[in-house]
What we know:
The protein is α+β, with helices and mostly antiparallel strands and 363 residues long. The chain has helices at 9-23, 82-96, 111-114, 140-143, 146-164, 186-201, 209-219, 260-272, 288-299, 306-331, 345-354; strands spanning 3-4, 28-36, 40-41, 46-56, 59-69, 104-108, 118-122, 227-229, 238-241, 244-248, 255-257. Helix 6 (186-201) runs parallel beside helix 10 (306-331), helix 7 runs antiparallel to helix 10 (306-331) and helix 10 packs antiparallel against helix 11 (345-354). The strands form 4 sheets. The protein has a 5-stranded antiparallel beta sheet with strand order 2-4-5-7-6, sandwiched between helices. The chain has a two-stranded antiparallel ribbon with strand order 1-3. The longest helix is centred in the C-terminal third of the chain and has 26 residues, at 306-331. It has 2 domains: 3-122, Phosphorylase Kinase, domain 1; 140-354, Alpha-Beta Complex (Aminoglycoside 3'-phosphotransferase, Chain: A, domain 2).
Amino acid sequence: MPVGGQRDPDQTRAALIDWLGRQVPGAHQIEIENLMVPQSTGFSNETFLFDAEWALGATRHRAELVLRAQPQVWAVFPEIDVINQQYRTMKILGAHSDVPVATVRWAEADRDVLGTPFFVMDRLHGQVPGDRPPYTVEGWFIDLTDDERRALNIDGISAMTKVNRVDWRSLDFGYLDRREYGSLGRAQRLGYFEKYWQWARAGHPHPVADPAWDYLREHWPADEPVELCWGDARPGNQMYADGRVVAVMDWEMVSLGNAVSDLGWWLFLQRFHTEGTGVTLPDGMLTRDETIALWEDRVGRRAEHVDFYEIVAGFHFTLVMMRIVGMFKELDPQSYTPGGDIYNPVSMLTAGMLGIELPVPSR
């Protein structure tokens, strides 16, 4: 879980009142209520909830808002840019696509306000499949009928494909072209993962990430399509209400690449929440083959190299786990488990896909 909180609610409220007055010209009598300040640092964001009220002339305005800020203490990704990766992406999608996203209002790059860049969006209401405990084990998703669960699963996969079908070139998503990593496509994705792998391992060998990276470098497909990729594509990053997806959330992994990578991530995370958790796929949910077929139908092309992109997802998630375990070791030693970066469901599933035999844990 997140660790290391240090936010002062009163100071945060005062800073937000002052800042909001600059975002809404002419606003006065500004009030911040029901402020929920994170007393821990999130893995990739800090999330604040609050209600804001202000007057413009004789009219009172009220909004339920969410603020997402870059973490202050520890990061699981080598680069986090909440303004470009999240705010800018959501703003374009909300205005020019059928991808359901929350309405974004303001962004702030000045670290003097809250210590890190952040943005503010409208709060939506609905249900989100849980991670702890997993939505495949218990909770509202399991309590649905099989038909209801299948309908939501289909709508969730369809929402993912709406991202993949976006014409990113015409909508000015060129800011996601990270040329410092190489030319757009295969070279750029390899360049990014090379940096991430080196950063996550911090000079120490890893019995899963290292051979997985060797495999990916050797087998990465050439001449692939370049599409908009959501990145963290999974049910837990979707909000549902009235039997449909009302929000696609968490854009910190957004990129340009082969959209089959989103399908691979979705499938690996489904494997993680079933096989990795010791449960079977809940009745009603689409099987792997059904998921692939639906993706192909919605996107309008064949999903090539799905097996490869599941391995990419396992490798990527393994790097995330290496950083999370490193965070506990550095910031919360009492919660740190030696070998946790290796002997966890993510790394073990990845090892299994590649036929990697893990070393016997040291006692």
